[in-house]
Amino acid sequence: MSGEILILQGIQESMSGELGQNVSIFFARYLVFVFALFVAYIGFGKGRRHLRKIAYEATWAAVIALTITTIFGHFMERVRPYLADPSIHALIPPPLTMYSFPSGHTATAFAAAIVLVYGGPGIGIIAILAAALVGFGRMATGVHYPTDVIAGALIGSLVGFMVHHIQLRRNAKKQQSPESYAKHH
Q1: Are 118 and 38 in contact (CB under 8 A)?
Q2: Is 22 within the bounds of a domain?
Q3: Angle, helices 146-176/104-117, rounded to nearest 10 degrees
Q4: pLDDT value for 122
Q5: d(CA 44, CA 111)
Q6: Is 110 helix (H, G, I), strand (E, B) or coil?
Q7: Quick check: 130 and 177 in contact, CB under 8 A?
Q8: The pLDDT value given to residue 96
Q9: CB-based contact 136:72 (threshold 8 Å)
Q10: What is the CATH number of the domain that holds 169?
Q11: pLDDT band at 103 (very low <50, low <70, confident <90, very high)
Q12: Which domain holds residue 95?
């Protein structure tokens, strides 16, 4: 038995019971949607323009991370833990694909979370914690191995960082363009 299966068995055992399973299911299936609503609230909320830009970047980062992990997963073809080992129980309905590596939910959450860090430390800490809980939930419900979640977190973090910094460069170029100079002078 692999070390990852042992880790998943330990996680599922520690989250056994109705409360533990319900918490795991919430983290795995619904927290990412709560997270998306949070980003939308930031984006559509009245107030600081800076946070609207961050929400826009977070949305794009999440979409790009999900696209990358979906494509990558079809090439890797790693079967989900609950399909590979009968000791692992799927606590949620089967995901859309039978492949688990890397975790798209985790990548999506981390991509948005990393961008939200640039919105402010309070928002960033909450976002990183929520992203980590999404990954934990994916393992606790038996649909991802720990390395799936780690890879998803790394891909998502890299995408979030890149999206934010590409947007910063685009904004800097816009401010240096001749049209922008003419408008301000």
Answers
A1: no
A2: no
A3: 40
A4: 87
A5: 19
A6: helix
A7: no
A8: 79
A9: no
A10: 1.20.144.10
A11: very high
A12: 51-180
Question: With contact defined as beta carbons under 8 Å apart, do 117 and 58 qualify?
Answer: no
| CA nearest to 105, candidates 92, 119, 120 | 92
pLDDT at position 81 is 94
27-57 as b/e: b if 16+ CB within 10 A: bbbebbeebbebbeebbeeeeeeebbbbbbb
Q: Quick one: DSSP state of residue 79? A: B
What are the tokens at 138?
């994916």
Percentage of the chain surpassing pLDDT 70? 92
Q: How many CA atoms lie within 13 A of 122 on its CB side?
A: 1
Q: Please confirm whether the linkage preceding 93 is cis (ω < 30° from 0).
A: no
The pLDDT of residue 123 is: 87
Specify the pTM.
0.87
Domain count for the chain, please give it. Answer: 1
The fraction of the chain above a pLDDT of 90, given in percent, is 64
